[in-house]
Design a protein that fits this description.
Largest sheet: 4 strands, antiparallel
Order of helices and strands: EEHEEHHHH
Mean pLDDT: 77
Low-confidence stretches: none
Strand content: 5-15%
Number of strands: 4
């Protein structure tokens, strides 16, 4: 029987199709159908195994068997090597340590750098003192107070002039007095709370 253009399949006692050769190839690759799946050219039969339909055997090529590659091992202990003598190993482990070295003169002793952390820090501080200038701890001149008084006098003088010039106007008097208080507090906080001496 040659393969028709489309086939009906009976899968799980249900008739499906028709399926084109391309769809049959996809179903075979995804293993939805097997060579024993019943197929027919019409929905009413007759039904035969799919592998008996002409050209459908190519849908199920033989899959190569996969396996592990044989591993070649190298013999690390040839038979010609002498066996390990455990008694000799134990005797070598129980041998006394090397005899103590003879006393050396101070000129022969190799003095290594200190191992203690404190000694290392002291050595670092000594080397650092050779290459760095000593810190100048004398207090710097402070211009902050002079600048603070100048700015305070100039700005508050402006607010005071506004207060005197508009004496009798309640709005301007409140604005001028509030400006004096707010600016004085703000300048004091910036100059002495935020800035450092300079």
């Amino acid at each position: 029987m040659s393969q028709p253009t489309a086939l009906f399949l009976r899968i799980n006692q249900k008739i499906r199709g028709p399926f084109s050769p391309e769809l049959l190839t996809e179903l075979a690759q995804s293993r939805v159908i097997t060579p024993a799946t019943e197929a027919s050219a019409s929905a009413t039969g007759p039904w035969i195994p799919l592998q008996s339909v002409g050209g459908c055997a190519e849908l199920f090529p033989e899959r190569p068997e996969l396996g592990f590659k044989s591993q070649a091992f190298e013999n690390a202990n040839p038979a010609s090597a002498p066996p390990v003598d455990h008694h000799a190993l134990i005797a070598a482990a129980n041998r006394p340590p090397h005899p103590p070295a003879t006393a050396q003169s101070p000129s022969q002793i190799n003095i290594s750098p200190p191992n203690e952390v404190v000694e290392i820090l002291r050595e670092n501080a000594r080397i650092q003192a050779q290459f760095e200038k000593p810190l100048d701890l004398t207090p710097r001149s402070n211009r902050r107070l002079v600048d603070y008084l100048i700015v305070l006098a100039v700005v508050n003088g402006f607010f005071a002039w506004c207060l005197v010039a508009n004496w009798g106007d309640p709005n301007m008097m409140v604005y001028s007095f509030s400006g004096i208080v707010a600016f004085s507090l703000g300048l004091t906080w910036v100059m002495y709370g935020v800035m450092d001496r300079y």
